[in-house]
């Protein structure tokens, strides 16, 4: 078993137990009862400089990274025991993080106000 597949299998098992694990630039986690959260963080140095367009582009990158994970581990969602996937973009300010936006079932939810 290659290292990436092994790491994703471990992450899926932890998510199934309600825990989370970082895999590369993505954190896989669980939101009860049946949601797999796929979280990445913006490269922007400040929220004041981040625009909605940039945030949506970064959210799309998170989705692409997740697609690559599923290509490596096709049964990732089954292993994680989840049906829905929520993609999240956060801003890490050093002592914690805040949510910027998320997408579930094609619906974008903004958690902070950004420039257009």
What's the quick description here?
With 116 residues, the protein is of the alpha+beta class. It has 3 helices and 6 strands, in the order αβββααβββ. Strand 2 (26-31) and strand 3 (35-41) form a beta hairpin.
- Backbone shape: elongated
Q: Note poorly predicted spans.
A: none
Name the average pLDDT: 92
CATH class: Alpha Beta
Relative helix content? 25-40%
Q: What structural class do helix, strand and pairing data support?
A: alpha+beta
Q: Give the spatial strand order of the biggest sheet.
A: 1-2-3-4-5-6
- Please, how many helices? 3
Structural domain tally: 1
Based on the coordinates given, report the CATH architecture: 2-Layer Sandwich
What is the H/E order?
A: HEEEHHEEE
* Major beta-sheet overview: 6 strands, mixed
N- to C-terminal distance: 45 Å
User: Would you count the extended β strands for me?
Assistant: 6
Annotated CATH topology? Alpha-Beta Plaits
What is the beta-strand fraction? 25-35%
Over the alpha carbons, how many angstroms does the gyration radius reach?
Answer: 14 Å
């Amino acid at each position: 078993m290659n290292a990436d597949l092994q790491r994703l299998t471990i992450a899926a098992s932890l998510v199934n137990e309600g825990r989370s694990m970082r895999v590369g630039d993505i954190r896989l986690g669980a939101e009860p009862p049946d949601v797999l959260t796929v979280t990445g963080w913006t490269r922007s140095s400040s929220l004041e400089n981040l625009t909605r367009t940039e945030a949506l582009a970064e959210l799309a990158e998170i989705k692409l990274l997740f697609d690559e994970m599923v290509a490596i581990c096709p049964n990732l969602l089954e292993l994680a025991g989840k049906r829905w996937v929520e993609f999240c973009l956060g801003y890490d300010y050093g002592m914690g993080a805040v949510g910027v936006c998320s997408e579930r079932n094609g619906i974008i939810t903004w958690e902070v106000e950004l420039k257009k």
